[in-house]
Design a protein that fits this description.
- By secondary structure, this protein is an alpha/beta fold.
- It has a single domain, classed as Spore Coat Polysaccharide Biosynthesis Protein SpsA, Chain A (Alpha-Beta Complex), CATH 3.90.550.10.
- The chain has three helices and four strands.
- Strands 3-2-1-4 form a four-stranded parallel sheet.
- The model has no long low-confidence stretch (mean pLDDT about 95).
Length: about 90
């Protein structure tokens, strides 16, 4: 069963790699990652480009928490939706 991980981000270069590394180390491998980025001006997108991430670009002036998640979900293909902010990370591999 495919899970879609929707990640909200804006200027999260300090945290995004830790989250994406943690996702890649999960025992469950049937997932897609969608990064809803609202105008990062730091290295967030550069770092994310090293992972299998589909980026949904949102203009900063259009950002709301709900709008960014809805845009990510609209792009998803999964039967399950997992929502995360870019500054969180998994603490268990499953």
């Amino acid at each position: 069963m495919l899970a879609s991980l929707i990640i909200r981000a804006c200027n999260e270069e300090k945290h995004i790699a830790r989250l994406l590394d943690g996702i890649s180390q999960q025992t469950e491998k049937d997932y897609e990652i969608i990064l809803a980025d609202s105008g990062s001006t730091d290295r967030t997108l550069e770092i994310a480009s090293h992972y299998p991430v589909h980026v949904v670009h949102i203009q900063p002036e259009e950002f709301t928490f709900g709008y960014s998640l809805n845009r990510g979900v609209k792009q998803s293909r999964g039967e399950l939706i997992v929502i995360a902010s870019a500054h969180v990370f998994p603490v268990y591999p499953d």
